[in-house]
């Protein structure tokens, strides 16, 4: 029919007919009721190419990375085409506090607003079609986040890899030597909300492209997507500024950059803090618009964890300074208006941690060593209702908040109300885990029953209480007795875990009484691993084929036929088949 097109619903496969004027719009499938986006019209020859600006938010920067928000804007040449796209993804995973502190998304938020990952990516596919994808950090958004997730979900690639807008900015911008999106927003006064959220960042990129990059690209005679892509990888990058801007504009831009860098230098202070080994670590304070970030190059600080050096200097401990002459530098940091906000936050969190320490200490003092009903583990300080675990959880979260705030700046944390919700969410998770652990704690009666079982098993293995040395428990002695036996079984069978517990015990006892047992590697009921390594026999040697055949023969004699037949041997398939045939033949001869 003239003026009409057809497409297939990605959910139910129904063929849908739609008017050409509706191309690119969202509609409901009449069959399954799911929302789909109708495919966009292919560009006619000579028409501006369609492409997509994309940004993602994730649960972190280290693999495995989970994408939790995708935002995009379809472009047609220079212009935005239609409404932007946004989808949240619910991987049902815990989101680290430092990640939530930047973008504001919590596990509970994603449970309420997120889609299953496959469905979310299919919606993204409907929006993108076959268009090339660009982003401000393509190496992360495409190479580290989107593409690996498509591969792990086993879904086809969406769109195609375009060019990196950050690399394009390096060839068009002289007003800054920092090409991060935050910096470019500030330099060019981009008025968009929701920094560090995918939709807000996409909006900022569209503004930068149209208002800043476009006139410079036109001056460079780059009018098409392919020409922009070529320019983004052209070398050397500074050469292309002379095409994008006049010498006067470049000079003005460089002056602006120098003024900005001088201002930033005034807001960065590095001092040396004493280390426990007598050396020093660098502690750097950096002021931004609303907060002060603190970093330290000690092992804990390098991993964005709380460390004694950062905490001590922020709270005013000048004795930590490695060089006493740097006190004036530290006092300059204290004079920054933003520092007061950091100091109050750090002090409040420290006070909370001390309060929790005091409550935990009091709770421990009030605990008894045990109760008649066996509700508390003998010799452990674990309260039956989980109060101590809850207090410990609160303290752990406070320290995580402190570390995140000092690393990214409390000004970046995503709002007091949202952050409070995050704390409650993490607290609920840890408390639930604590309650689960408490439910798994054995009672006194269970411990006594287990001890009795251990003693009986020791006797079955040929040992008794008198064989226990001064430093051995029955459990430790059993572990050392079974050390060569379990190793021998692991060298002989592929899946020894399939053997039922009672049958396994019978086999272990039989191997313990086997005359050859003392010649097996790792034998030594009263020997530590250090003793075995220091001995003349190699405890790590592989069993010989003859030893494995002997173990297999013993297992065939001890184990029920159905259990033995279900096992697979390691490297002795033909011999195992022979033994299997004997067992089957013997079973057939039984009346």
Explain what this protein looks like in three dimensions.
The chain is of the alpha+beta class and 591 residues long. The protein has four domains: 1-41, no CATH class; 48-261, Ribonuclease H-like superfamily/Ribonuclease H (Nucleotidyltransferase, domain 5), CATH 3.30.420.10; 268-440, no CATH class; 447-589, no CATH class. 50% of the residues lie in helices and 12% in strands. The protein contains 23 helices and 13 strands. The chain has helices spanning 97-103, 107-113, 117-128, 138-153, 165-170, 181-187, 198-219, 225-232, 241-244, 247-266, 299-302, 308-314, 327-335, 337-366, 387-408, 416-440, 444-460, 474-492, 501-512, 529-534, 545-558, 561-566, 573-589, and strands spanning 4-8, 15-19, 26-28, 35-37, 50-58, 67-76, 79-80, 85-88, 132-135, 160-164, 268-274, 280-287, 292-296. Strands 5, 6, 7, 8, 9 and 10 form a six-stranded mixed beta sheet that branches. A three-stranded antiparallel beta sheet has the order 11-12-13. Strand 9 (132-135), helix 4 and strand 10 (160-164) form a beta-alpha-beta unit. The longest helix is centred in the middle third of the chain and has 30 residues, at 337-366. Residues 368-385 have low confidence and may be disordered.
